[in-house]
């Protein structure tokens, strides 16, 4: 087949198309079985208060343990699950899993810890999605809405559908905080930040990765932070990989940060160990200060 392909560009394209369609169909087939087979797992990336160094939040990031292909990252299946409508069911699983986990961590280690979950715009268009069910579940775990942060895309704020708006207000009414993910990469009207009482802006990592003292990106981070604070929003910087980026973001006024410099996303068991170490250390500190 390769000989034929070599002599004809169109055929090569055709072949590649067919292969990628086959892979897509295969992935879709496996994806539909992944939930009943228990192949999804949430990893957690700690979010640090940049001033105190404390871990106050964790972002839940989904992983797919594929039996043959190994660990698959969300970039390779979230869009597919959106297109197939599967994201609605998956989104419910993510919520339940994260809520159960934060209940355990709050009880054992960190009573004020918040877990941030990513949500897809598709979920807000689903008639079956009812915040009341989320509230009931949180209540059954003894949690207030404050235990969760819901990350949405900038674009969602701009959707005019009243059903979507009602769901956003439903989150607010439940006391669940709302964060705009990847802020600065999409379209948004700044007035919406105020209108919906958005709690957090997450500065996209594309602004962080080339950060240096006199860069345009530094000016942007600083401007976003000033504006956010004036609108009553707190700022989280994503994708911090170097000490220099961390210092500059602190200088720009960012409140929280996450990134490989501090920790990669890790399985829940590792996150438990991290929290357990921290809470033991802070108990030691308390003892020392009382002595
Ligand atoms: P996101 O929500 O913006 O998540 C941040 C992504 O950056 C994560 O990739 C994280 O692993 C990665 N990251 C964190 N720190 C660093 C760093 O210092 N350097 C670099 N280069 N990357 C870093 P991940 O886990 O592959 O997720 C990719 C995207 O998939 C997420 O972007 C989010 O949009 C989506 N996603 C992940 N989990 C879920 C989920 O449970 N539900 C939905 N709807 N979407 C999800
Ligand atoms: Mg996110
Ligand atoms: Mg992001
Ligand atoms: Mg992203």
From TrEMBL:
Source organism superkingdom: Bacteria
Q: Which residues form the EAL domain?
A: 24-279
Designated name of the protein = Diguanylate cyclase
Q: Which residues of the full protein are shown?
A: 471 to 761 of 761
